[in-house]
Amino acid sequence: MKLKQIYVCSACQHQSPKWAGQCFSCNKWNTYAEDVINVGNKERTYKAIAIKPKIHLSDLPETAKRITTGIGELDRVLGGGLVSDSLVLLVGDPGIGKSTLTIQTCDRLAGLGRSVLYFSGEESVGQIATRAKRLNLKNPISIVNTNSLEAILATIEEERPSFIVVDSVQVMSSENLDSHAGSIPQIRHTAEQLMQVAKQKGIPILLIGHVNKEGQLAGPQVLTHLVDTVLYLEGDNFQQFRLLRSTKNRYGAVDEVGVFLMEEKGLTEVKNPSAAFLDGRAENPIGSVIVPVLEGTRTFLIEVQALTSYTQFGYPKRTASGFDLNRLNIIIAVLERYANLKLDSSDVYVNVVGGLKLKEPAADLAIAMAIASSKLKKPLPSTLAAMGEMGLSGEIRKVTQAEKREKEAKKMGFKVVGGKTIGEVIHGAFGFEESPRP
Predict the structure, then answer these.
(1) CB within 8 A of 187, min separation 6: which ones?
(2) Which of 231, 259, 273, 290 has the most CB within a 10 Å radius?
(3) Does one domain contain both 348 and 242?
(4) For position 166, which CATH number holds?
(5) HSE value, Cβ hemisphere, 13 Å, CA-based, for 47
(6) pLDDT band at 433 (very low <50, low <70, confident <90, very high)
(7) Pick from 271, 303, 337: which residue ends a domain?
(8) pTM for the structure as a whole
(9) pLDDT tens digits, residue range 402-415?
């Protein structure tokens, strides 16, 4: 096989021997991406060999075996543990805790008697050893510092480990390709070779990946298609909580979430997330409401805060941390129209405590009540929780799995309030008149 480096337009698939800012075919800008093609002897013919079909699927035994990592929150997101021949991709922002979670997983697996092989292309062996010492990890882990894919494959063939880590897939390169490490051909080739190792030898492999400035997985989309599971570790670098989500999982559900707490000794599992998120909340606070949200199969109680102040400029400012700003503008407009709240001269600030991000519409009512509490300067009971989706006509719609949310709120000592319209809810909570409907 002889490979040649080319550039392919992502818009029209036009191929060019060199990079250009504008496509020669469709005239679009910045669409050429590096790729490789096989320019070897194309006249060589191969004799097709018939493959005997397998028996029916219903008669085949299940071959996938689960390997417990020893970290309950990670096993939950994976669907019960690592599958023996799976290729897992872990991504997250720089400094969020990917390497910490990985080295802790390696330590737990080594403590269970499994041989672990850690390939690092970004950090030296001494740096990893320093982190392991800081985290008080003492189980034996074999560490190799290399950027060569061929060296990785040869080492795996010789050592035959039970678990493999490659940190990271973007810095590995193959000598068979002329392109540099991190390019699309290198990332794709590395993932393909490691996938074959995982499937043929039955060894679970964990790849660590980078993200771009938008927070999405860096590199080609084919990397997502090749791996069996994609895990995202997210959170705020200035907050302690970390959420581990699964966006793809061939062996389990994709709506599970694991909660960790970043401490001096590494990532600690959070068994009761609701209690952790509500720790330190004041009594009868102004502009604070609790909302039960669903994260996978679990229910969390999250505190949302709002602050209103008289604007010093002609146009009021709206700022949201952990909540969609466009959704906030809709809620403010509904409050002005159907709850008689005059917010046209007030700056509105909304914050989700703990550095979390609320995306589901069930938080609409809690955000609206927090804004009303701050605007009217009236505190709400500290045991009050709210959930509901707000419509543009001021109506409050029911949310999915309301019974499950109420059960979690009741267990934590909260009472969920609601109503048919936003004006009715505001009137019941603050004695504020509902605006007549046009």
Answers:
(1) 169, 170, 219, 220, 223
(2) 290
(3) no
(4) 3.40.50.300
(5) 1
(6) low
(7) 271
(8) 0.80
(9) 999 999 999 999 99
